[in-house]
Amino acid sequence: MTNVYSFDGILVFGLLFICTCAYLKKVPRLNNWLLSEKKGVWGVFYKAAIIGTRLHIAVAVSCLAMAFYIVFLK
């Protein structure tokens, strides 16, 4: 299991957060409700969604590398 307070846990949480926000950007109702603000606390969701959509190849490779690390090396 991955601990949230370790560096591995923070990386896993960040990657999952970015992937989730990028997925929610594709859902029209959630896009208008959750990702409409571009500043403030709610802007974090918007910025994570933008990172996930623009850098989708790098995020996917990072997710695969992290999965390999957690399953086989940890």
TrEMBL record:
Cellular localisation: Golgi apparatus membrane
Recite the UniProt keywords alphabetically.
Answer: Golgi apparatus, Membrane, Signal, Transmembrane, Transmembrane helix
Bilayer-spanning residue ranges: 6-24, 44-72
A Gene Ontology term for the protein's cellular component: Golgi membrane
Q: Where is the signal peptide?
A: none
Q: Tell me the membrane topology, using the record's own terms.
A: Single-pass type I membrane protein
Q: Pfam families, from UniProt?
A: DUF1242
Please give the function described in this protein's UniProt entry. Involved in the early part of the secretory pathway.
The family annotation for this protein states: Belongs to the KISH family.
Instruction: State what protein this is by name.
Output: Protein kish
Q: Which organism is it from?
A: Seriola lalandi dorsalis
